[in-house]
Amino acid sequence: MFTIIIRVIIILLLVLFVIRMMGKRQIGEMQPIELVITYIIAEVACVPMSDPAIPLFYGIVPILTLFLLHYLISFLSRKSLKFRSLIDGHSVMVIDPNGINYKALKQLNMNLNDLLEAARSQGYFDLSEIHYAMFETNGKLCVIPKAEYAPLKPSDIKLKPQQQTPPVSLIIDGKAINLNYFKINKQQLEKIIKAKTNKKIKQIAFAYADGQGFTYIQPKEGKYITANIKELKTSA
Amino acid sequence: MNRGIVAIIVFIVLMTASVLEMFYVEDRIKDLDSQIKVLYEYMEQDKEHIDTSLNKKTISKIENQWNKDKIIFHFLFSHMQINELSYKITALNRHIHQNDYNMANTAASAIIKNCEMILSYFYPTLQNVL
Description:
heterodimer, A: 236 residues, alpha+beta, CRO Repressor, 3 domains, 5-stranded antiparallel β-sheet, 4-stranded antiparallel β-sheet, flat, B: 130 residues, mainly alpha, Four Helix Bundle (Hemerythrin (Met), subunit A), 5 helices
């Protein structure tokens, strides 16, 4: 049993390493080749994991070989458009201003229900709202709505909203992080948190702040509080 | 770390390991095979007395060497296959000490056959790949 436990740990670490090396897309939207490689890796990893009669190398070597093949295919796809098209396929327009392109749908081996389902998942229940729609190589439907149904943007009504910056975590699970980003030290943060929530940092589940200083503080118990870290910092 | 560098390192490691493995396995299995064949010849010379000190010394040497080699072989081949070969080498040693020619003959033939089988399945020939 101990052998199997060690084998599982080794294979898990190796698969994790290989999936990380393959890039983020491996986790979410996958191209056909990535899907195939991920499935095969999952399969070959299982065999030596559960069968101690099979050498561990029978799992390790195929996984590393698949990683190499994936890298080689990605490299060739970057270099050659023809190769990329051969491996990944290409996007297919299924709705155009004339309506549904039934021939294209047939070419994708999809039926109308698949198209309607994909459109609904994009928030379009009425196909007449769609100007163009195409199936991407990863199977996702991309939609360009008709101008009258497109979501309103601030620029459409000549508004100039303030540019937002990504929020940065301040406290996670009672631990202060990224203090240098906000140019404060732990004592200052402790004071700010105490003043605003009457709690200590370790009693805070999660807190983040954005570039404008907007701060969201969620204690481990109780309701969340919003504040402005820049203002609090000056007062602290 | 850069993925390209990792891929190159993995490629070099895999290729080097494959080449070294090929040389190592071929060398060790052929060595075992030839030593068993020599022992076989000794036994054939005097079927009534196979428990000679030369035979005992030879089989002990073979067994000791195999005990070292099998650690690496367990990484490369099915554990059952290697355990079977280990069992047959131990059995041959026992039969020589017991002066049992028939059983020793059977064990030695089985070891030679096993060596042939390991090598025949090991090379990346077309029939093995397919």
